[in-house]
Design a protein that fits this description.
Layout (H helix, E strand, L loop, with lengths): L1 H36 L2 H11 L10 E2 L5 E2 L2 H16 L2 H12 L4 H4 L8 H10 L4 H4 L1
Antiparallel strand pairs: 1-2
Helix pairs in contact: 1-2
Length: 136
């Protein structure tokens, strides 16, 4: 009885290895065909499958109480709640109030959006061993 079981077990394992080899060979053939046709979307999808790199699409997240949300609709509602909280924060309200009062909102940004003067360009071009004409 044990001998039969061992023999059948070997047959099943051999069959599984053969099927897996056939599957991988078939996928590689499809990848070659996609590459020859220039179908990069299919090629990358097959490559991802062959490399066994799977993307987990529905990762469970926690709600405000700490309970796991596995349902997609509940997760979307939680994300909506999260981003509305972030995007409607008190700092945004303060900037809106500052603009209403007429204060300089741009002064808080500290970003120079003006074009640099020619003298500064010449100064930096000497550092990089090129002339202004080379840049233009």
């Amino acid at each position: 009885m044990q001998k039969k079981y061992t023999e059948k077990n070997r047959e099943v394992k051999r069959s599984a290895r053969r099927d897996q080899r056939y599957y991988i060979d078939n996928l590689s053939y499809q990848a070659e065909e996609a590459a020859s046709k220039g179908n990069l979307k299919e090629l990358f999808a097959i490559t991802r499958t062959l490399s066994k790199r799977q993307i987990q699409r529905n990762r469970p997240i926690r709600n405000t109480d700490g309970a796991l949300l596995t349902n997609t609709e509940e997760q979307l509602k939680r994300w909506q709640e999260h981003f509305s909280k972030i995007l409607n924060s008190t700092t945004d309200k303060q900037t809106v109030e500052a603009e209403k009062k007429g204060e300089e909102y741009e002064a808080n940004l500290r970003v120079n959006i003006k074009a640099p003067p020619v003298a500064e360009i010449k100064k930096t071009s000497s550092v990089y061993d090129c002339t202004v004409e080379d840049v233009e």
